[in-house]
Amino acid sequence: MKKKLTQSEIDGVQYRRAKTWRIILAQMNGGIGMCFYVLVGYASYVANQGYGIATAIVGLILTGTRIFDGITDPLIALLVDKTKTRFGKIRIWLCAGWALESLAIMMLYKWASNGTHGIVMFVALYMLYVVGYTMNNVTSQIIIPVMINDPNQRPMAGVWGTICMYITPMILMIGINTVILPQYGNEFSIPMLSAACNFCILLSFVFLVLTCIGVSNVDKPENFNAISVSSEEGKIGIRDMLSLLKSNRPLQCFVVSVTSDKLAQQTAGQAIITTMLYGILIGNMGISTLLNAVAMLPSIVFAIIGARYAGKHGNKKAVATWTGVCIGVTAIMVIFCSVIDMRKITVALIPTAIFFILTFAVNGARMCVSTANGAMMADVIDYELDRSGKYMPAAVTATYSFLDKLISSLGATIAAASVALIGYTTTVPQPTDAPTTSIKILTMILMYALPILGWLCTLFAMRFYHLTKSEMVNVQKRISEKKVAVKN
Question: pTM score, two decimals?
Answer without folding.
Answer: 0.84
